[in-house]
Automatic annotation (TrEMBL):
UniProt domain Cystatin: residue ranges: 33-122
SMART domains named among the record's database cross-references: CY
Signal peptide annotation: 1-25
GO molecular function: cysteine-type endopeptidase inhibitor activity
InterPro entries from the UniProt entry: Cystatin_dom, Cystatin_sf
A Pfam family hit: SQAPI
Identification of the protein by name: Cystatin domain-containing protein
UniProt superkingdom: Eukaryota
Keyword terms of this UniProt record: Protease inhibitor, Signal, Thiol protease inhibitor
Length: 124
């Protein structure tokens, strides 16, 4: 009986770290809430998310003298880091063509600070 219990603990010690690594180390957003991890945005049609998407397209247009028209946010994730990072897939339209971009916007609401960190085309 004693030996069986020790065996159980030994097994548990072996298996637990592997289990934890699988659950936590996998994709960001799955598993536990890791600090600095990306969390999927559940509702990308929320006004605030739309606003961030529009901001990204406007900033990109200003910086690159483009004329993309914001259509919608297709999907997105957020990351909390001294503010919030938004990583959004935004649909845009230019010259009759729809094109998706991945935009990263860093926002610090309390400072009314927003910055477009990156804006790169993605294959739709
Ligand atoms: C998503 O947000 C929009 C705008 O706030 C709302 O109209 C809609 O009902 C929400 N959808 C879900 C599934 O919560
Ligand atoms: C905003 O982002 C741009 C890169 O897109 C960077 O050059 C600039 O320094 C950033 N501004 C601030 C205030 O962080």
């Amino acid at each position: 009986m004693k030996i069986e219990i020790q065996c159980f603990y030994f097994l548990a010690l072996l298996v637990l770290p592997i289990y934890a690594a699988t659950v936590l180390g996998g994709k960001s957003g799955a598993g536990g809430v890791l600090p600095g991890g990306w969390q999927p945005i559940k509702n990308v049609t929320e006004p605030h998310v739309t606003e961030i998407g529009e901001f990204a397209v406007e900033e990109y247009n200003k910086e690159s003298k483009s004329q993309l028209k914001f259509l919608s946010v297709v999907k997105g994730e957020t990351q909390v880091v001294a503010g919030t990072n938004y990583r959004l897939i935004v649909a845009t339209k230019v010259g009759g063509l729809t094109k998706n971009y991945q935009a990263v916007v860093w926002e610090k609401t309390w400072e009314h600070f927003r910055n477009l960190t990156s804006f790169t085309p993605v294959n739709a």
